[in-house]
Sequence to fold (612 residues):
Amino acid sequence: MIVPMLKYSFLVYHAEYKSFLKDLKHLGVLHIETKRKEPTSKMQELFRSHTDLTRTIGQMRDRVKDKNVEGDKPALKSGDEVLNRIREVEGKLEQLNQQVGHLEKEAQQLMPWGDFSIDRVQELENSGVYFRFLVCRTKQYKPAWEDDFFIQVISDQGDYRYFLMIDKSEDRTENPIELPGAEELQLPDKSLGAIRKEQEEIKKEIAIFNSELDLIAAHCMDALEAHSVVVKGELDESNAWHQTEKEVEDQVMLIEGWVPKPKVDELNSYLDKNNILYVAKNSRDDEKVPVLLKNNRFARLFEPIGNMYELPNSKELDLVPFFAPFYMLFFGFALGDAGYGLLIIAIAFWLKYAKVKDVKFRRILTLAQWLGLSTVVFGVFTGTFLGINLMEAEVAWLERFKEYMIDPSYMFYLALSLGVIQILFAMVLKIINISIARSFRYAYSTVGWLILLIGSGVTYVLKITGAFDETVASYSQNGVLIGSGALILLFSNPKRNILMNFLAGLWDVYGMLTGLVGDVLSYIRLFALGISSAILGFVFNQLAFSLKPDNIILGPLVMVLVLVIGHSMTIFMAGLGAFVHPIRLTFVEFYKNAGFTGGGKAYAPFAEKSVE
Fold:
């Protein structure tokens, strides 16, 4: 559910305002209303600093993830010192890596020539023997050049031939010897060995700096995160001052914001105690109120899924508690293997209690356990366990349970039935949403569609079961059509005349009929996913037995290997589909038919931050 909010306006004497903001931040209940959207230059700088800090903390955490770092804690005290040292080291690493890259280019130039002494070449040139380093395509090289000039082939690299020419001509500078297709190269003034040695020295420096960063990441993250909290606090305070309006010749400061109703008593107590003038009132229809969700322990697990779309606005229902049971059912339906469900529960249980300490991630693992439980239930009722069809298994103790198992052919109709139920439930929520946001009168059209769909369905069931004869069924159906038709075609909008409502209603009928058919058919994907995961598991079971060698040792090993790899792939692919497609059904079919508007902004109180 969405926690109701009150809008507070505070009038504070300018000399006491700084102290008031400090107390307000300590209380941590006020979501400051944004009146000035353009931030100041100081706020922009603080925002960039905080974003940079957040990114740096993430990068440093990743450096030492699953890594055992040995060494003493660096002599860095404050978070600012830690950040400055990180930036200094990163700058040096960037320079060193550029040097390594430049040296590597020089080494690549020398590779075809091998490791020779540059000093010796210089000595020979001083004595009048000059070397020219030439390259041409292999097919353009002419062996006759070797008869006319002092030439030595050094190496062939790909399609190119590298060769050396000794030139003693006195006019070599003014009139150099030209060889068709050959190009003269200017080589680095270092030998290949010297370059490699210099690279190794630089790489040792890089390793030292990387080790220092590892030590900082292992021992100094608390200081860096504390510094991030300080910067975020400064940003929040700057925003509070920025959103403050000065009244009565700058003598009185006015700030406004939103407070959840469950927290107003604490705030009012402080305000009354300090004689601070304030006004608290309910929101107007045109105001955008921040959204704070408060759900029970079960529904809260599904909030991250709802947040993938967007938050509801303050004038509508929070749909998370309403789609949560459906999502859990749909996941189990789509995966539909009891063995896979048990594996999900076991892995989530192990990670939750043995590996993970983060509260948010533990909630995700709890959600995985619920989804695994749903998968187990559907797997039991469809008779599927690790790709094995339990209905065909000849196991004595299973015989008494087989009568409760559902034949796969009925799963198609079950998927459609679940879709119809969720869509009808969504339409009920739409009526409530419209009534909250506007008035029940604007929901007459949706009420008419509910009467039409439910009334027609009930009439049909009563007719085929014999409860209604043909005459009664006909009267009943006509009554449903007349009542629903009037609401859909004539009373859809109380502000329009009947003619305009009729014309708009005809268009609504076309859109609803085509939309509802498509929406219901979308739920067939649950049946398809469930069948495909069962078939994949069955196929890998067959492969494991068919590929098993006739060997007492290798046979079981190969079979187990194929089973592990095959079922791992099946769990990954089927699990991904079981996660994604119910989300699609939720955000498209359910949200649309529930009249979800969205666009809510999360409640973010002006409060003291702590290192998590």
User: Anything to note?
Assistant: The chain has a mean pLDDT of 86. The radius of gyration is 37 Å. DSSP finds 19 helices and eleven strands in the chain. The chain has four domains: 1-33+246-294, 36-103+193-242, 116-190, 297-309+319-439+494-591.
